[in-house]
C-alpha cells in the first residue's frame, strides 16, 4: 500500500514512487494530463520520485485529495 500524506489546508497530497518502475517521461506525461486540475511538484533522489500534487480547486476534502493521488498513480501506470 502506498503511503499518501494529505494536507487539506495546503490542498495537497504527497507520496513517493520508485524510479525503477516509473520513468521520468511517464511522470511528465501524467503531470501534463493532470495540469488542468493540479500542479505537480517533483523531487527525489536516485531511487524515488517524491511527488506533491497541489489541487487548483479551493474546497477539497482529505478523501478527495487521496482520490486525486490514486488517480495520478493510475495514470502513471498507463504510461
Characteristics:
4-stranded antiparallel beta sheet; 4 strands; alpha+beta; 32% strand; globular; 79 residues; 34% helix
Low-confidence stretches: none
Strand order across the biggest sheet?
1-2-4-3
Mean pLDDT, nearest integer? 93
Give the helix/strand class: alpha+beta
Which descriptor suits the 3D outline? Answer: globular
- Name the helix and strand elements from N-terminus to C-terminus, one letter apiece: EEHEEH
How much helical structure, as a percent, in the residues?
25-40%
Count of distinct strands: 4
Reported for the largest beta sheet, the result is: 4 strands, antiparallel
Rg value: 12 Å
Task: Give the CA-CA distance, first to last residue.
Answer: 20 Å
- Portion of residues in beta strands equals 25-35%
Count of helical regions = 2
Describe the structure.
It is a single chain. The protein has 79 residues and is of the alpha+beta class. The protein contains two helices and four strands; from the N terminus they run ββαββα. It has helices at residues 24-33, 62-78, and strands at residues 5-7, 12-18, 38-44, 48-55. Helix 1 (24-33) crosses helix 2. The radius of gyration is 12 Å and the shape is globular. The model has no long low-confidence stretch (mean pLDDT 93).
Provide a quick synopsis of the model.
The chain is an alpha+beta fold. The protein is 34% helix and 32% strand.
Fold blueprint:
Elements (H helix, E strand, L loop, with lengths): L4 E3 L4 E7 L5 H10 L4 E7 L3 E8 L6 H17 L1
Amino acid at each position: 500500500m502506498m503511503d499518501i500524506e494529505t494536507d487539506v489546508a495546503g490542498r495537497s497530497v504527497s507520496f513517493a514512487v520508485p524510479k525503477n518502475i516509473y520513468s521520468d517521461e511517464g511522470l511528465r506525461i501524467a503531470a501534463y494530463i493532470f495540469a488542468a486540475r493540479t500542479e505537480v511538484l517533483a523531487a527525489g533522489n536516485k531511487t524515488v520520485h517524491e511527488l506533491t500534487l497541489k489541487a487548483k480547486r479551493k474546497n477539497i476534502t482529505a478523501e478527495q485529495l487521496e482520490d486525486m493521488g490514486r488517480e495520478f498513480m493510475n495514470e502513471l501506470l498507463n504510461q
